[in-house]
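quick one, 113 residues, struct below
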Amino acid sequence: MKDFLLVFRNDYKAQPKASPEEMQATMKLWMDWIGGIAAQNKLTNAGNPLGSAGKVVRPNNVITDGPYTEIKELIGGYTIVKADSIDDAAKLAHGCPILKEGGNVEVREVVAM
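---
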């Protein structure tokens, strides 16, 4: 099996203001989805959500506030899973709760150096 990175993206402006109850229900969806992958023994790293603040380091010692303020997508988090192929890893992403919010999951193979 190989490792694959799942990157969770969503429209930056589509981030809903959720009540505490809605946030708890959404968190349960995420935990159930991740738990399902773990139950298959295919979870390598559960990952974590990413904060909205950041910095972008560019050539010539230029550091700007970020991340990627010029794009509309927000990278919200990641996880690493084990699968036999990129197609199998993409199938694991099908149940991701971010898809219900109009977001997407980028699937990339982690290549050992």
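Helices lie at 20-39, 86-93.
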